[in-house]
Each structure stands twice: as C-alpha cells, then as structure tokens.
Design goal:
By secondary structure, this protein is α+β, with helices and mostly antiparallel strands. It is built from six helices and five strands.
Length: 174
C-alpha cells in the first residue's frame, strides 16, 4: 500500500516510449536517486522522494506475491523483470516494465538496487492485468497478509509449473 494517503483515481498517466524511469535504492528499498522522468510521472519532487521507501508509489492493485518474488530475486543477487502498476502522488496510476538489478561493491556485496522502467507493450498489459486481478482476488480471500501472500505465491508458482516455464521465461514470453 502507498504511504501517501491518496486513493487511486483510475486515471492512467503515460510517459514516452523513448523515456526511461530510473531510480536507485539502498538495500532496504529507500530511494537514493530518482531521475526527472520518475519525478514527473509520479508527481513528486526530488525532496519528497529521496530518503523515502520505494513503496511510496505502490498501487493497491499490485499483488504482494509479485513484490515478494522481486525482492527474493534481487536480494539473492539476480536481476528481475516485472510488470508493475505504480501509484502517482495524486492517485493516478502508470504501468511500467521494470528491470531491477542489484548494485554491488567491488567485493560483490549488494549495496543497493537499480531500476529502469519502460512503457510496457499494450498487448502484454491485458494478460498481466488479468493475472494480477486473479492474484489479488486470491489474496483477498485470506484474513492475514501472511496467509494472503502464501496463497498468491502458491497460485503463481502453480501457474508457472502448469505452463512449464520459469518466471523469467513467462515474463519474456509475453
């Protein structure tokens, strides 16, 4: 859930196909850098974002299991691609195709994370939105966040097994 108290408006904000939203965080997910595209699309000033948790832009329609998968992967030192709907400061939303990578010191220790986000292909969004609706519906069936997360994580794992693909293969195949 976003840390700002605004409710989603249902209005989609768009950014250019040639633009890239960039942010960097520390190992706890606290924003240490935000480029001008990120600031403009999300509707925040640099001062409002720097030092804040990246989940300040988390849209309530995002399934928790997608963020768990993302965090598990990058904390283990792997890159991850994901489709994410974000919440702008005013409650509008914007979809991104995110590529998140760990930043490492010369000794290989993870020092933070770097995310580049582009405009997703519209044909991909239909399928992703349907999947995310099903995952959120599954999460909504459980009384606690932990039970909801476990159920939606199992749901996505089962889907990948049924389709015979890894998460990466699924995302890249869309």
């Amino acid at each position: 859930m976003a840390l700002v108290g605004c409710a989603p408006t249902g209005v989609e904000v768009c950014f250019g196909r040639d633009e890239i939203i960039v942010s960097k965080t520390d190992t706890k997910g606290v924003i240490t850098y935000a480029n001008d595209v990120f600031l403009r699309v999300a509707g925040y000033s640099e001062r409002e974002l720097l030092g804040k948790p990246h989940n300040i832009i988390r849209h309530p329609d995002m399934p928790a299991c997608i963020f768990k998968l993302l965090w598990d992967r990058i904390q283990a030192g792997h890159e991850v691609f994901a489709y994410v709907v974000n919440l702008a400061k005013n409650g509008d939303h914007y979809w991104v195709h995110a590529h998140v990578t760990p930043s490492q010191s010369s000794s290989g220790a993870i020092t933070g994370y770097h995310s580049n986000r582009r405009v997703p292909r519209p044909t991909v969004l239909e399928g992703i939105q349907g999947l995310y609706r099903r995952l959120r519906a599954e999460e909504g069936r459980y009384p606690t966040r932990m039970e909801a997360l476990a159920a939606s994580s199992t749901m996505i794992e089962d889907m990948l097994v049924r389709e015979g693909v890894s998460y990466d293969e699924y995302i890249h195949g869309l």
